[in-house]
Amino acid sequence: MMRAWILPMLFVLSGSAIATGLTSRGSPGTAAALLLAFLALAGVNSPLIFPRSICVQEARRRSAVDGRPVVFWRPGCKYCIRLRLQLGRSARQLHWVNIWRDPAGAAAVRATNDGNETVPTVVVAGRPHTNPDPGWVREQLSPSA
Description:
The chain is of the alpha+beta class. It contains six helices and four strands. Strand 1 (70-73), helix 4 (78-87) and strand 2 (95-98) form a beta-alpha-beta unit. The two termini are 28 Å apart. Strands 2-1-3-4 form a four-stranded mixed sheet. It has helices at residues 6-24, 28-45, 56-66, 78-87, 103-112, 134-139, and strands at 70-73, 95-98, 121-124, 127-130.
């Protein structure tokens, strides 16, 4: 759990330190703009923008019941962020597995991607797809889901 917050906290701390230095040098406007940029980076990389993650076993069980895809992701991954943002509200229809919080999920991704933890890996109807186009993922969602 704590590992997912490391990158966002680094952005907040770095932005605060830089903003403090700029403010002390007489550039409060620049300091505020940079602090806002660092806070935005922290927000985008935080686990808060992703739907709640579940373990791989639970994701597979739920997917077998409702047919919804399973997305393996990790905080800080720009491709995961792109997928999440481009899916918008429909992202809640997917089952999300944070591979940094679930060792079994990380192992499943490595088994699919030649030993690499390449994310996002989206499993649709039992078939894995590494870094698929967000539009394609949206098409895989049933209208009733």
